[in-house]
């Protein structure tokens, strides 16, 4: 070889080596062949008694798990280059697969390897972010029948995959007087010890606590000061959801010296199993799926997911992402799975809960509000929000009113940006003589629009400079915004409507003297901030939250609709008091607080998890679909004033009548769900038939991903036996089949009534029927187009029993021309 050729060879080798080295690694989720997962492994030594939990610690199943893990290692070693990958987890309990951190080039090699069924890039996950037991009628209803709050949820374990838990919180305290057993032998929980999480954290209320961080660590984005490698919750989100589902009863809510009543979980005697998989800096699907795998192995009864993908998968149908497949097999293992519908509302096709085997939860408010007020010197009063004390005592003393930018130091050494001038983020920007003992108006501007400014910094500025109080006002240039009630360390009020701000500014300008350069030289305006910590209970409720994700449900990233209702159910998720973490690294204004008043479908989801625990306690043999059906058919679509539930929409502070695409079946009624009369049941085989009936779906792909062939399919996806009817393109007429089961203890006769969707006639056959206990009845629903529409219309079928059971079936139809 000549010198020139040798040089070129070395150059090319080094160039290619550098290219490979610089290729950024990603996390990939992989499903493989090579045997069933442990939960579904069968031989003559494994017992599969109905209703009995799997003994994952048996020698046979442990050996099978080891075999699967070894096969994953062998596949990687034989396919990928040495040193080019790092296996993060082996998934083996409900799905046979693993996650790997490697380059896209290596992932392409893996995708082509024999035995690899499915590979998906990890696109991350997000968090979907007292009084509610009373709002849902639990103390007078379910708790009474279960033996009171000291027994509600007894014997049920709720698993929560989230940001961890604050084990020192009284909502999770061990109570020797109420007899929490320290060792619940039926639940093989493990307590991972680590920073802020001593071994004593698993105390009988918390029966297991694990953390999963391999995916987060692989990204290199963890911050050691906040991303704590233990089950401890440095965010607050996980503690909030856990206490909402199963927090102890009657825990005093005290925040910054103010008392806000007593908090309780929906099922206060249920036990909590914690699976931390989300960190302040990052959340990966690989960690979440590993947490779900462990929860299912441990044998939780309920799996609550207030976290998850925030967008549909790119290259597969929505219901065949790894996340949804894991939920499917959790359901197959007998676990009730509840999932946040997402916070991408109010637009249509925004739900991130797609599958019939997981209950997707929408969010609403309750009738409790925390109103505050701003009173001007001329007597004008403006309503606002702010959990703070008043700027005056018993009288109506009013203080000097100052606009922030009128108090800025003229020659100060700081940037002239909105954060300094308008948003009150920096004390050094203001003349302390002007703002001391004043009510200062701080405006919404760029910093709040992009998330860099905080209400906490306004309060800190006010405290440092001696504000009497502050007004955080909507900026007419930006328009109205949605305000949440946060506790302020000084008197403060949020005015979220731009029209109110304009009237306040009109008063201010009339009362402010300016020189010929427009500089304020005297402030004659006066204002006072009212008490904001006292709750009122007279608001129309529930109202579906604006941010709550909506249907119709869809099958792919192009938003092609599917004949399945989502969301499934509605629960309180707006302004929910529950446990928090004093670190509060994502919400600085709650730093040091043990409770947070937080909103989102994240908060709605554990309400349903807790209600499911109460139902499971009463009916331990019920399948997950029976529990879901009981909640759906007994939900209400009317508010506390007997009027149809309303929903917030795109236009702020205006309401429209809610539909099943907003509220699902309606607001959950825990008491009625205990005794639904009839239920609709579906199992794994039904879900396979459903998947195989979806138009334009490849049966081979379904077999590859699920591991089962399309041996049977429905005539239409709408034939899946769920407690709703959804048809996304009704031409002429269509027959939909349902089967109901009588779970009451008596013979009952049912008749039906129908509220037809606009443009559709409904016929039910048989028009009436008598059904014995544990008996089943086939139903045929015929839908006939009478007028075509450009959009979905909604109605319902109501089955009324002779023993006063009422079964509601929502209908959503888009009637089109032939």
From TrEMBL:
Lineage, broadest ranks: Eukaryota, Viridiplantae, Streptophyta, Embryophyta, Tracheophyta
Domain Peptidase S8/S53: 153-638
Protein name: Subtilisin-like protease SBT2.4
Family, as annotated: Belongs to the peptidase S8 family.
Transmembrane feature ranges: none
Compartment(s): Secreted
Alphabetical keyword list: Glycoprotein, Hydrolase, Protease, Serine protease, Signal
Signal peptide per UniProt: 1-21
Molecular function as annotated in GO: serine-type endopeptidase activity
Organism expressing this protein natively: Lactuca sativa
Domain of life of the source: Eukaryota
């Amino acid at each position: 070889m000549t010198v020139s050729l040798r040089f070129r060879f070395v150059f090319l080798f080094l160039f290619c080596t550098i290219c490979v080295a610089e290729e950024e690694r990603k996390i990939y989720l992989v499903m493989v062949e090579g045997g069933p997962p442990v939960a579904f492994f069968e031989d003559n030594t494994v017992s599969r008694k109905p209703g009995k939990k799997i003994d994952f610690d048996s020698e046979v199943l442990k050996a099978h798990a080891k075999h699967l893990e070894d096969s994953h290692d062998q596949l990687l070693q034989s396919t990928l280059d040495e040193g080019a990958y790092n296996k993060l987890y082996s998934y083996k309990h409900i799905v046979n697969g693993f996650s790997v951190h490697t380059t896209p080039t290596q992932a392409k090699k893996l995708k082509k390897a024999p035995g690899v069924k499915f590979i998906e890039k990890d696109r991350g996950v997000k968090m979907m972010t007292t009084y509610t037991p009373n709002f849902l009628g639990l103390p007078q209803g379910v708790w009474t029948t279960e033996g009171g709050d000291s027994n509600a949820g007894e014997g049920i374990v709720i698993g929560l995959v989230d940001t961890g838990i604050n084990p020192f919180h009284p909502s999770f305290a061990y109570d020797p007087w109420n007899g929490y057993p320290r060792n619940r032998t039926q639940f093989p929980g493990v307590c991972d010890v680590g920073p802020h999480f001593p071994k004593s954290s698993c105390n009988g209320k918390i029966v297991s606590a694990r953390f999963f961080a391999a995916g987060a660590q692989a990204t290199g984005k963890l911050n050691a000061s906040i991303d704590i490698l233990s089950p401890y919750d440095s965010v607050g989100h996980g503690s909030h959801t856990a206490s909402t589902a199963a927090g102890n009863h009657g825990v005093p809510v005290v925040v910054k010296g103010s008392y806000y009543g007593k908090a309780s979980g929906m099922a206060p005697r249920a036990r909590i199993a914690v699976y931390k998989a989300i960190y302040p800096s990052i959340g990966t699907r690989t960690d979440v799926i590993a947490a779900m795998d462990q929860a299912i192995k441990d044998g939780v009864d309920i799996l609550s997911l207030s976290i998850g993908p925030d967008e549909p998968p790119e290259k597969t149908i929505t219901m065949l992402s790894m996340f949804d497949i894991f939920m499917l097999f959790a359901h197959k293992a007998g676990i009730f799975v509840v999932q946040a519908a997402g916070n991408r509302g109010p637009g249509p096709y925004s739900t991130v809960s797609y599958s019939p085997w997981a209950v997707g939860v929408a969010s609403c408010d309750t009738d409790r509000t925390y109103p505050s007020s701003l009173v001007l010197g001329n007597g004008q009063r403006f309503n606002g929000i702010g959990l703070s004390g008043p700027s005056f005592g018993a009288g109506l003393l009013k203080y000097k009113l100052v606009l922030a930018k009128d108090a800025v130091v003229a020659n100060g050494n700081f940037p002239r940006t909105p954060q300094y001038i308008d948003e009150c983020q920096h004390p050094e920007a203001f003349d302390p003589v002007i703002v001391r003992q004043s009510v200062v108006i701080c405006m919404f501007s760029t910093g709040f629009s992009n998330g860099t400014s905080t209400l906490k910094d306004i309060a800190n500025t006010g405290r440092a400079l001696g504000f009497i109080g502050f007004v955080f006002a909507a900026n007419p240039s930006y328009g109205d915004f949605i305000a949440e009630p946060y506790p302020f360390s000084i008197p403060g009020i949020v005015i979220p409507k731009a029209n109110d701000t304009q009237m306040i500014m009109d008063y201010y300008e009339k009362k402010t003297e300016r020189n010929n350069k427009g500089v304020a030289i005297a402030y004659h305006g006066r204002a006072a901030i009212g008490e904001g910590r006292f709750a009122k209970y007279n608001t129309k409720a529930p109202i579906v939250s604006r941010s709550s994700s909506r249907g119709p449900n869809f099958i792919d990233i192009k938003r092609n609709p599917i004949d399945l209702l989502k969301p499934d159910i509605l629960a309180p998720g707006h302004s929910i008091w529950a446990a928090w973490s004093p670190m509060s690294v994502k919400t600085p204004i709650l730093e040091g607080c043990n409770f947070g008043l937080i909103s989102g479908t994240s908060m709605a989801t554990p309400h349903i998890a807790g209600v499911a625990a109460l139902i499971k306690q009463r009916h331990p043999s019920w399948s997950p679909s029976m529990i879901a059906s009981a909640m759906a058919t007994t939900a209400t679509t009317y508010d506390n004033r007997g009027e149809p539930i309303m929903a917030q929409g795109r236009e702020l502070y205006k309401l429209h009548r809610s539909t099943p695409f907003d509220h699902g079946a309606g607001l959950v009624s825990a008491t009625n769900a205990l005794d639904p009369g009839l239920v609709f049941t579906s199992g794994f085989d039904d879900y396979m038939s459903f998947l195989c009936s979806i138009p334009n779906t490849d049966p081979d792909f379904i077999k590859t991903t699920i591991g089962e062939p399309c041996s049977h399919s429905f005539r239409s996806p709408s034939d899946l036996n769920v407690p709703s009817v959804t048809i996304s393109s009704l031409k002429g007429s269509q027959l939909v089949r349902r089967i109901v089961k009588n779970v009451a203890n008596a013979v009952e006769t049912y008749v039906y009534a129908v509220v037809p969707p606009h443009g559709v006639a409904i016929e039910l056959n048989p028009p009436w029927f008598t059904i014995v206990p544990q008996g089943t009845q086939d139903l045929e629903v015929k839908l006939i187009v009478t007028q075509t529409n450009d959009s979905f219309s909604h109605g319902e079928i109501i089955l009324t029993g002779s023993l006063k059971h009422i079964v509601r079936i929502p209908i959503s139809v888009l009637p089109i021309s032939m």
